[in-house]
Amino acid sequence: MRRRTLRGPRGTRWLSYLPLLAVLWAAAAFAQGRPRAASAPGPAGPAAAPEVTAEPPPTETAFTLLGAPPGAEVSIDGRTVGTTPLPPRSPVSPGPHQLRVTRRGYSTYDQAFTAYKGRLVALELTMIPTHMLLRLRTGEVTAQVFVSDELRGETPIELTLLPGLHQVTVRGPNIQDESFTVTAVAGEQVERDIVVKLKPEERRKEQAARPKERRFYTRWWVWTLASIGAVGIATAIIVPTVLAQRSSCEKLGGEVCFPVELAAPALTSSLVVRF
Question: Tens digits of per-residue pLDDT, 83-95?
Fold first, then answer.
């Protein structure tokens, strides 16, 4: 059996397709390199949720106080910055600082700390109550206040008392002494209004200095009106009574009236002649 050998142009016919294949490959490569056009949004399909970006951390350097009693004065490096409670983030410059917190009736807190740039420094402190605060008022009168015979000042005043029993006395030149006892408890705050009384001699002077007011019943016109009213009332009572007692003959204006009285068993009569 003989093998047929292709010769001439038929054996090289596939070579003629190489340029066409090269053109197709180039077109495909060009199409892949071009950006795709955005397709129009269709009616179906939910909208994409917006991306939530986390807020950057604050860059302010600040500090906060934890455990401070209300009403305490806060100072940093000898400068007063406020009274507790302070804002949660109180600004402070970066670097070392000296903190001081004071309040009457509590122990003083002193602490050194370092503030770092862009960070919040939390300072937890402990202030121990040592005294009781007692506020006294005496109204418009100014009086001296003594605690166990020790002069503490004049009203209105805020006293600091150690825990225990104390005798408090309020004195003045024109008022009576007022004394009371108080049991002090550390950390408590007590307010008290004291009603002061004038001394007897001062009270008499004050009453004598007041202008005397005449009472209404000491005025002349009151008694005049009362007399007229009494006369009117008497007239209204007496006149109807007298008229009611007149006989029928007198009411008719008769000159001679014969009052007749019936008596049992006999009938008696009397003659009355009026002129």
Answer: 999 999 999 999 9
Beta carbons of 120 and 89 less than 8 angstroms apart: yes
* CATH numbers and ranges of domains, the chain: 62-124 (2.60.40.1120), 132-203 (2.60.40.1120)
Give the torsion sign (CA, 229, 231, 235, 241). positive
C-alpha 90: how far from chain center? 26
Type of residue at 168: V
- Give the span between the Cα atoms of 172 and 150, in whole angstroms: 15
- Determine which helix (DSSP H) or strand (DSSP E) holds 245, and give its type and residue range: helix 220-245
Q: What is the pLDDT of residues 3-25, one digit of tens each?
A: 444 454 555 565 666 677 777 77
Q: How many CA atoms lie within 13 A of 275 on its CB side?
A: 0
Residue 64, pLDDT > 50, answer yes
The conformation of residue 205, written as its DSSP 8-state character, comes to H
Question: Sign (positive/negative) of CA torsion 155, 156, 160, 162?
Answer: positive
- Residue 265's pLDDT is 52
CB-side exposure of 16: number of CA atoms within 13 Å?
Answer: 5
Bond into 129 cis (ω within 30): no
Q: How far is CA 114 from CA 30, 34, 121, 123, in A?
A: 64, 59, 8, 11
Over residues 90-134, the pLDDT tens digits come to 999 999 999 999 999 999 999 999 999 999 999 999 999 999 999
Q: How far apart are CA 78 and CA 74, in angstroms?
A: 9
